Amino acid sequence: MFKNAIVRTPGRSIVDGLSSANLGKPIYEVVLEQHAAYVAAIEKCGVQVTVLDADERFPDSTFIEDTALLTPHCAIAMNLGAESRKGETTDIEQVLRQRFEIVEEVREPGTVEGGDIMMVGSHFYIGLSERTNLVGAQQVIDILEKYGLSGSMVEMNDMLHLKTGVAYLENESLVACGEFLTHPAFQDFNILPISDDESYAANSVWINGKVMIPMGYPNSKALIERSGYETIEVDVSEFRKLDGGLSCLSLRF
Ligand code: CIR
After folding, report:
1. Domain residues of the chain, as ranges?
2. Rounded Cα gap, residues 249 and 241, in angstroms
């Protein structure tokens, strides 16, 4: 169960965020509305949300999930793989030090982004993406093992982050799309397959028994509900324009 979440208000500079989506620039007023609705949806799941001020220096800083991994034993501040995002961690480390006794760090030449890490109980799957390298992933695994946790690496080719295409919904179940449908790392799970035309819905988030899913993906919604979950739809279309999904907008612990 999650008790807390940390989010960061999007800044006006979000219009200059990294993107490969070709969906146009986000509209700031709508970004703020969608972000507020996202926070309200998490609160509805019984989670206390800390909202950090916007940081205009970093256009992508609202995608706060990428900056850290939070475990019951320690926080791990990431060294982001995207050059323009590296500075985001400095500020987050201060925030984490107020909440966690132990704050570990991923260091150069290792790079890891939190969107590449999927928690399954005490095990953490780490995608080797263009943002997360082997040295960084090994650093995270070494840190996890110090605290009785474990990690393993997942080869991947097609997606920005691991959790762009797979999300653990507890109960041995996960939603997956594309390359993760047949990926050897996930074959022991009950896989709820997300079709290519709804692949954005593979970035859903389990929070305290409910599944938050992006608005506008009816087949995925029906599939998840048929599998026994209550869903909460949240419109994050403005964040999609920057390759961002539901999970990347918060750190949950
Ligand atoms: C980026 O490219 O870094 C941002 N525009 C989107 C980050 C999305 N993060 C995530 O999926 N965890």
Report:
1. 4-252
2. 14
Q: Is-catalytic flag, 248? A: yes
Q: Evaluate the omega torsion of the peptide bond into residue 26 and state whether it is cis, within 30 degrees of 0.
A: no
Nearest ligand 1 atom, CA 18: 5
Q: Are 14 and 31 in contact (CB under 8 A)?
A: yes
214/194 Cα distance (integer angstroms): 13
| β-pairing verdict for 68-70 and 75-77 | antiparallel
Protein fold of 4-252: L-arginine/glycine Amidinotransferase; Chain A (3.75.10)
Among 38, 119, 242, which residue has the most ligand 1 atoms within 8 Å of its CB, making it the best to mutate? 242
CA distance readout (Å), 21 to 10, 200, 241: 19, 12, 6
Residues of the chain with pLDDT under 70: none
Q: Percentage of the chain surpassing pLDDT 70?
A: 100
Residue 126 CA, distance from chain mean position: 12
